[in-house]
Task: structure prediction
Amino acid sequence: MATMLRHFSRQIRKTEQGEGLGVNLRRLRLEKDLTLDALAQLSDVSRAMISRIERGTSVPTAMVLGKLSRALNIGLSHLVGGYRHREPTLLSPFEQPVFRDPESGLERRSLSPLFPDRMVNFVVNTLPLRASVAFPPHQPGIEEYLYVSRGRIAVMVGNERFEVPAGSSLFYPGNVQHEFHNIGNETAEFFIVIDDNGAR
Result:
């Protein structure tokens, strides 16, 4: 029974993620006066896939989400969670936008509120054992600062490979494709500060 309940809970969370993301994607697309066809052309994501994401019937991979974010000229976390007013803000775990990559099992949780006048985002990622995930290049000027709190990962930044064990940190530009590979013997946990201000 407990196993069935956990499975049901995971399915609910996946559905909520798809529906919330879809609402945000449609709103942002319409705010920029883009048709489905226009966004498909800009992002290199098929019109059918964008439509399914907007309807909440499909959850995009990290690569697809990154392509849509770049095409809309916004941060990935903005696409998942949206902006807030600039004021002291407490985010409970239930209010922190979460993206789960259906292919790799990566969970990406946004820990910081996003403000429209300043784009610094603080996220925590968990990557299952032996899993890998890739993100497409972000807009020029975006920089990322990574810290591994558990496990060991390999980070590919373009053609460069860095092995980052727990306790170590890495800086890299975000405007090249970057990949994360769990090369340790446990689920990896790593924090990333994403500075979008150089892209504004």
